[in-house]
Amino acid sequence: MSTLLDILEEWDGGCFYSTELLAEAYSVALLALFEATPEKRADPRVIPFLEAGYAADCIEQDGLDTQAELCLKHYPPPMNGTENRLERTKRITALLRADGYTVIEKWECEFQSDLVNNPEVKAYFERHPTTRSTPLRLRDALSGGRTSALRWYHKADLDKGEKIKLYDVSSEYPNANLRSIYCLGHPTIYLEGDPNVPPLDQWNEVAKITILPPRDLYLPVLGYKAKGRLMFPLCRSCVEEDSQELCRHEEPDDRKLTGTWCSPEIKMAVQKGYKIISLHELYNYSETMQYDPATGKDGLLSAYVRCFMGLKIQASGWPPHCDSEEKKKQYIEDVRNHDGISVDASKVEKNPALRTLSKLILNSFWGKFGEKTLRTKTVLIYNYEELMGLVSDPTKTVQSLIPLSEDCLQVAWKPVEDGEESLPTSCLLHAAYTTCHGRLQLYQYLDIVQERALYFDTDSICFISRENEPEPPLGNHLGDLTDQIEEEYGKGSFITEFVAGGPKNYSYKVAVGGDTKNIKSDRILTYPFQDRLPDFPLEVVTRPARKLWQAKNVKRRRVDVARTVPHGFNAYGDEDEEDQDLLEALDLLME
């Protein structure tokens, strides 16, 4: 029978974290992981495992997936390869406990989950001096659009001339592809501590940094991914704890954000009061391309956009104001001068199908650059060797095996994250820059209205309009804002009352044509469509169903019945909480 020391002597290593790190992070009182006598601790066969942190100075973090029983990166196979690794681990643990030792195990899958979902564990390892920043991942720089409800409710004060308006950016992402700057070639990579790092104004593309947000910025610039959502906080601890209290974190380590962002957003953030604490890694490109409307020089993606945007314009038909040949010529010339798009007057005719197709091509083009490859794939296996090759491949995780016949298995597998393959059409840099430029364009409009903003969603903004206060300009060209309410309900229409239950969860009332007593209701079925309905008998089955709806606005901190502020927002400095509550209430009364 093998003794404990015999097994330890055979042990080939694994993936461990020191007791000081894990015990403090999890607040675990490890009185004695190795409650052995001095004589046993001094045994030469035990000392290597004590130094490695296997027993006395560590918590074991087995790199073994408890379901798939595969994680070769963190749990290398034994040298002899004859014993199942899971069974071997259980045998070692049982012998340790049988000898009277206290054994605390932490499986890698649990630990990795805690690093993402447990704010205390995540914060501890980010702050610890022995923790090295992980390498820059380009996919971390790719984020979606800004979406948030800034106010829960607002009713326009018509007596004071207030209106609520909803503006929409015309073709936001195609406009970014047309006009934005894109990088080319191979980057120069700068690591933390490199004395040759260029100044911020010379950064091109992406950087992984630690940055400290200001306390009083109502509209934060940098997005931060927390709990599966893209948030825009001013304090990391507050957003990860989903705190609805006033931020009391004074230490920069509690508030700082660590992430990967594109350089245009970093530059904008610094302009708004963010302070870069440390640079972990920078991808810097010396070669760039950008469309120049003055000379007609194309950018990286501008020729593609101009081609299909021309098809979309032609398939949209003539605008209502083009009621003469002279106005039509002026419209075509205006589009050419402003956007560089050529329109064939003989092909301008309403064609909904072609318009939809060209719009789809324009909006989905950039997404191909950021296509994910970590997706489940299904293969049919007909022989044993092929099956064993797939199951034992360390770069793949088998999801399911379904026997289809005596000679065929359907196997679903997914590549591990480190084994992600690259597609010929992939370019995460260009995808990240496209969404970055889209967010910055929306931010420029939000920056004009500031606290009058009620809601925004990727390419739209809802705000309070007041006399003698600035508003984002409207236009008819690519990337310009258009009044969504006037387009849908007629000239002069505006919103009188707005309510939001969270992102993509809102409703409003419209004064059609500016008349607050006129309520317009669109017909669901038009007369021509009713004529085409089938006239044969149909059986309609109606079943009762329940759906739970709730207002859930978790992206900001609620300060009163209607208003919100970013997590970590503290505009009143060192005033005590009661005084700050009073000041916030006075701000509301002053509106």
Q: Characteristics of this structure?
A:
591 residues, 4-stranded antiparallel β-sheet, DNA-directed DNA polymerase, alpha+beta, disordered N terminus, single chain, globular, 5-stranded antiparallel β-sheet, 23 strands, nucleotidyltransferase, 19 helices
Largest beta sheet: strand ordering = 3-17-18-5-19
Specify the structural class: alpha+beta
Instruction: Indicate the percent of residues in helices.
Output: 25-40%
The overall average pLDDT, rounded, is 79
- What is the approximate shape? globular
Low-confidence stretches: 1-38, 43-83, 521-527
Q: How many angstroms does the end-to-end distance come to? A: 81 Å
Number of strands: 23
Largest sheet: 5 strands, antiparallel
Radius of gyration: 30 Å
How many helix segments?
19
Strand portion, in percent? 15-25%
Question: What features would you describe in this structure?
Answer:
The chain is α+β, with helices and mostly antiparallel strands and 591 residues long. Among the domains are: 4-127, no CATH class; 377-419, no CATH class. Helix content is 31%, strand content 20%. The chain is built from 19 helices and 23 strands. The protein has a 5-stranded antiparallel beta sheet. Strands 7-12-8-11 form a 4-stranded antiparallel beta sheet. A hairpin with a 2-residue loop joins strand 15 and strand 16 (408-415). Helix 2 (19-26) packs antiparallel against helix 7, helix 8 (172-179) crosses helix 16 (428-449) and helix 12 runs antiparallel to helix 14. It is globular and about 90 Å long. The termini are far apart. The model is unreliable at 1-38, 43-83 and 521-527 (pLDDT under 50). It catalyses: DNA(n) + a 2'-deoxyribonucleoside 5'-triphosphate = DNA(n+1) + diphosphate. It holds the Pfam family DNA_pol_B_2. Keywords: DNA replication, DNA-binding, DNA-directed DNA polymerase, Nucleotidyltransferase, Transferase.
